[in-house]
Amino acid sequence: MVVDPSEFIPFSEWLSNAAGGFIVLALVIFIAWTVIAFAFTAIRNTPKQAVSIVGGGLKRAILEDFPRSSLRRTIGMTRLAIQEAIRNKVLIIFALFVVLLLFAGWFLDVQNDHPARLYLGFVISTSTYLLLALAMFVSAFSLPNDIKNKTIYTITTKPVRAHEIFLGRVLGFGFVGTVLLILMGLVSYGFVVRGLDHSHTIDLASIEWDEETGLGTGFTSVDSHHRHDFLINRNIEGDRPVGATEIAQGHTHAIYREGDNYVVGPPTGDLLARVPVYGSLRFLDRYGRESDAGGEGGLSVGKEWTYREYIEGNTLSTAIWTFENLTSDMFSTGGGDEGVVPLELNLRVFRTTKGDIEGTVQGEILLVNPEKTLSVQDRYSAPISFEAEEFQTFQVNIDYKEIRRQNPNTAELEKINLFQNLVDNGKLEVHVRCRDHAQFFGMAQADMYIRAPEGSFEMNFFKCYLGIWMQLVLVTLFGVFFSTFLNGIVAMVATLSIVVMGISAGFIGEVQSGDAPGGGPIESLIRNITQQGATVDLDMGETATSVIQSLDSFYLDTMESVAKLAPDFPKFNMAAKVAYGYDINLDLILKQIATTLVYFFVLLFAGYFVISSREIAA
Amino acid sequence: MSTSVDDKRDVIIETRNLTKVYKDFWGRPKVNALESLDLEVRRGEIFGLLGPNGSGKSTTIKLILGLLFPTSGQALVFNKEASDVSKNERIGYLPEESYLYKFLNAEETLDFYGRLFNMSAGRRKQRVRDLIKLIDIEWAQRRQLKEYSKGMTRRIGLAQALINDPELIVLDEPTTGLDPIGTREMKDLIVRLRDQGKTILMCSHLLADVQDVCDRIAILHQGELKEMGAVENLLSVRDITQIQAKGLSNDAQQQIREIIANDKADLVSMENPTTTLEDLFLGIVRDSKARPGYNRKRERDQQEPVENAATGDETVKDTEETS
Question: Is the overall model pTM greater than 0.80, yes or no?
Answer without folding.
Answer: yes
